Amino acid sequence: MSPYDSDPTDRLRADPVLAAAADGEDLAVDAALRPKLLDEFIGQERVREQLSVVLQAARKRGSTPDHVLLSGPPGLGKTTLSMIIAAELNAPIRITSGPAIQHAGDLAAILSSLTEGEVLFLDEIHRMSRPAEEMLYMAMEDFRVDVIVGKGPGATAIPLELPPFTLVGATTRAGLLPPPLRDRFGFTGHMEFYAPAELELVVHRSAALLDVEIDPVGAAEIAGRSRGTPRIANRLLRRVRDYAQVRHDGVITKEIAAQALRVYEVDERGLDRLDRAVLTALLKLFGGGPVGLSTLAVAVGEEAETVEEVAEPFLVREGLLARTPRGRIATAAAWRHLGLVPPV
Fold first, then answer.
1. Per-residue pLDDT, 341
2. Is 183 annotated as a binding residue?
3. Which pLDDT score is estimated for 202?
4. Is 318 domain-assigned?
5. 141 annotated ligand binder
6. Which part of the chain is the AAA+ ATPase domain (predicted)?
């Protein structure tokens, strides 16, 4: 398990931009680019300010802070913030994920090995099994778990006291969390997509750490194609850096960034191959819709789940596609973006 992510493979599969280009070296670079303290974290001002107050108050009291829930789309910094929380508290951090906890015993083993003040980061917490989830209720509230010994009528519950710890849960689908679990978090922060100006700062900071020379217009070009997501901005920066070093003198300008991203099939609005394939099929094969999800997925040669969870959220957010009760339809902006004329 990498310190970068509880499940790097799942994260890469979920990233629609240049997933195939990221390897073990890229994951290590991503980890190096992570800010270590709240003051270094770019963007998410509201969440940062609220979290800063929570952590400072806990330090003044000499106690562990309330449990923290971070929600929002992938790539916005939930894992990074969890590590920052541990660093700000000068506490160790334990990293795991919801899918890795399939039995209550798995969770009990993790909780029983925690030390006082330790931070437990539970990624994709909404995917944890129900028995483990119910055990977590008591652990969060009373710092205690009941370990069941034996089976049937002779089974007994042995209470196990836990040292005070801070749970940091992260989820991309907060609506799937049951209310009893959600209510046990003392602080909930929702991560928003980044503005282009914030992503420019991310690109400049990462370029400095990577020792890459980049001009402001080149940084703006990369930021504008990064879908409001720092993880994608950093990944595009690395690919543009490679192109600049191989085909040019290593300096990233607007022209070089545009050339590089054209090679990697990322257009000026951040759409990648799958996004354009979905729009092209919707416009050319189905006249702009409406068309059902499964039919659209077959047309582009992908699984329906891939189209729905990877391509559609960005296309809807960009105003290029709309979901209706009758199916998916393209907007006027989609026709304009692909340079096509809608049927009369």
1. 84
2. no
3. 94
4. yes
5. yes
6. 64-197
> 3-class DSSP state for residue 197?
helix
Q: Please, what is the Cα angle at 115 between 114 and 117, to 5 degrees?
A: 110
Residue 217 CB neighbours (<10 A): 13
The pLDDT score that the predictor gives to residue 149 is 65
pLDDT for the residue 223: 94
Q: Domain residues for 165?
A: 34-190
Integer Cα distance of 334 and 265 in angstroms? 17
Tokens of 110: 């993790």
Yes or no: say if 121 and 96 are a contact pair by the CB < 8 Å rule: yes
Q: Please provide residue 147's backbone torsions phi and psi, each rounded to the nearest 5 degrees.
A: -95, 120
Catalytic residue among 48, 78, 182, 239: 78
User: Is 172 annotated as catalytic?
Assistant: yes
Residues 244 and 298 in one domain: no
Q: What is the pLDDT of residue 33?
A: 83
What pTM does this model have?
Answer: 0.83
Active-site residue identified among 11, 48, 231, 235:
231
- Among 15, 123, 272, 275, the active-site one is 123
Do 74 and 156 lie in a common domain? yes
Distance CA 169, CA 248 (A): 44
Q: Is 123 one of the catalytic residues?
A: yes
